[in-house]
Design brief:
Largest sheet: 4 strands, antiparallel
Distance between the termini: 34 Å
Radius of gyration: 17 Å
Order of helices and strands: EEEEEE
Shape: elongated
Number of strands: 6
Number of helices: 0
Structural class: mainly beta
Strand content: 35-45%
Oligomer: single chain
């Protein structure tokens, strides 16, 4: 196992043995919606700020709208609509 999340579960039966695993394109877990940044390096955004990320899985691009500390790890969650 790689630790990479995958959107599908799979089951393969061969030679009398059944193998369970994961499959699909991990990019679909990110693409398709805007994500709201909840914290950067453990610190929430400034009051009134709404930094967001948009993943374009087809083009492999990320668009962001935020003032952030360079190099700081960020956490985000899908925007609730």
């Amino acid at each position: 196992m790689t630790g990479m999340p995958y959107p599908e579960t799979v089951e393969i039966a061969t030679g009398g043995q059944t193998l369970d695993g994961c499959g699909g394109d991990p990019a679909v877990l990110l693409a398709g919606g805007e994500w709201v940044v909840e914290s950067i390096d453990g610190v929430p955004p400034a009051a009134g700020a709404l930094p967001t990320l948009l993943f374009d899985g087809a083009a492999g691009e990320v668009a962001a709208r935020a003032d952030a500390t360079a190099g700081a790890p960020a956490t985000a969650s899908p925007e609730r609509g």
